[in-house]
Amino acid sequence: MGCGCGGTVVLVLSIWGLFLISLSSASRLGASKQKLQLNRHLNRFNKPYVKTIQSPDGDIIDCVHISKQPAFDHPFLKDHKIQMRPNFHPEGLFDENKLSEKPKEGSNGPNTITQLWHANGKCPKDTIPIRRTKEEDVLRASSVKRYGRKKHKSIPKPRSADPDIINQSGHQHAIAYVEGDKYYGAKATINVWEPKIQQPNEFSLSQLWVLGGSFGQDLNSIEAGWQVSPDLYGDNNTRLFTYWTSDAYQATGCYNLLCSGFIQVNDNIAMGASISPISEYSNSQYDISITIWKDPKEGHWWMQFGNNLVLGYWPSFLFSYLADSASMIEWGGEVVNSEPNGQHTSTQMGSGQFPEQGFGKASYFKNIQVVDSSNILKTPKGLGTYTEQSNCYDVQTGSNDNWGHYFYYGGPGKNPNCP
Which domain holds residue 190? Predict the structure, then answer.
């Protein structure tokens, strides 16, 4: 006697087929939704341009009219009148630059640094150069929403260092810092290198931090310097960068111009673009100068690159604590240690050499200064240092007539003393 179950098999197969079709449709729908979201974000990052410049390193630099830059996506900036120049520079900024740039150890003197895209053109007047965000840039991020943002808890917290901040984030630092006063800006000349990065999700940077508030959920931070970040940029080039947050990296702020906030006024320097040339071990040394200060009249935080390139400003309304002043200034290096294979990363900080190697080998910060309430640049008082694991990355301070207050910092990461 036949079981008559052929019909059941056909029915099961039909239901299975329908399930697979609906699964495939759902996945197609999901993919097209993601594509739509991606395109929406790309349109938000990439503004209509007047001219485009192909950089030798593969970057595309778009010259965007100054009034069309990402800052003006911010609802508070709809009627903002762009301030083309700061009302005040900190006193001593230009005098200080007349100091000899030559260290006692001997050097080639000041070396000019440029950006790679300059080789192929420049942006016209009334435009600003913006590094174009490509699809693959966004797809490297953990999510479209997190693209261009730092992970939470990636800030060095000296003295009362909370172990959570060290262990949870995997970020390690070698910094000098001041606290305990009101600060209205900071300056440093930063030696530029191209540290090796072990894992694509790690980075190495050298920067200054202007910090306001506690180290809780409401920390305000303005940051600028150079970084190597394969995840963010898709290569190992050394790039100029800025960052800001008003809530400890949770929802506000971003790198460079990847969100509304920083207003750029300079047509010559592109945030996130490659710096060239860079220092070589026992050879020519190159450095960049960065000054960040608060305009006493308008309250905006301005940034200057080198001796005379005013890049732009962070409007004061972006911040709570920094709307008044900073409570801590930090200078130094930071790396991500993702502990590949359960061992310390071999991602380098600075030049990859320890501070005791000295000039031409170790990386340095020199002429470090703070801006006081009278808008005067001064040498920092009570400079402290901090590092989580000095056998992996270290810092050593000093001072002399030529370099003012300075420090060497950095290291190789993984080594026999840093397993």
Answer: 71-97+111-149+171-410
